[in-house]
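Technical annex, item 7. During the second reporting period the consortium partners agreed on a shared format for inverse folding records so that results from different sites could be compared directly. Each record opens with the tokenized structure and is followed by the designed sequence. A conforming record, contributed by the partner at site C, is shown below for reference.
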């Protein structure tokens, strides 16, 4: 009796496998497979963020190496003068969805530890040109110096107009210079 059940079970499995092999894969399953792979890639990126290699981490490749060096140099000088840390990260659209872009930006800021621990004085400028998104995340120490409204005003005045013309470096550069000037003014640092 036990042998008959096993044989019956095996024959059902073989028939099922044979029928699956004969049917073409529907388009929805291919799409679902691609979506699954993209979701898996995004989760893997979230779970194991790369270590920052400088103040500017261009994961979307929108800057030339020379442009990255210029941004890094400006931020480095400012950090030495004020101890305020600014990091710029660009994200390819495969690394996050539009819906999770803001969450990922905050996750990066926390994971990388941007800003001095005792001062919480970090700023992350997170950009995805593929998703047409940008977020400037200020640490609590920065929020005492620079309001969300002032940050948005800088974004709207200096960065977005250039980004709309695909001048990504110039927009980032102009926004960074304006942000630094505003922070220096608020800190009373003579320029």
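Designed sequence (site C submission):
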């Amino acid at each position: 009796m036990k042998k008959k059940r096993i044989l019956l079970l095996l024959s059902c499995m073989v028939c099922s496998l044979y029928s699956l092999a004969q049917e073409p894969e529907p388009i929805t399953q291919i799409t679902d497979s691609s979506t699954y792979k993209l979701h898996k890639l995004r989760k893997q990126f979230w779970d194991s963020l790369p270590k920052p290699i400088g103040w500017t981490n261009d994961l979307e490749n929108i800057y030339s190496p020379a442009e990255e060096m210029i941004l890094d140099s400006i931020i480095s000088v400012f950090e030495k003068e004020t101890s305020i840390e600014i990091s710029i990260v660009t994200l390819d659209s495969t690394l996050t969805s539009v819906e999770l872009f803001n969450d990922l930006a905050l996750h990066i800021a926390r994971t990388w530890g941007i800003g001095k621990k005792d001062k919480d004085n970090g700023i992350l400028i997170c950009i995805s040109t593929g998703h047409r998104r940008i977020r400037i995340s200020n640490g609590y120490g920065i929020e005492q110096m620079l309001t969300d409204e002032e940050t948005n005003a800088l974004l709207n005045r200096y960065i977005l107009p250039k980004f709309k013309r695909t001048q990504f470096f110039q927009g980032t550069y102009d926004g960074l210079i304006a942000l630094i000037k505003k922070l220096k003014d608020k800190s009373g640092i003579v320029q």
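The beta strands are 56-58, 85-90, 122-128, 133-138. DSSP finds seven helices and four strands in the chain. All partners now use this format for quarterly exchanges.
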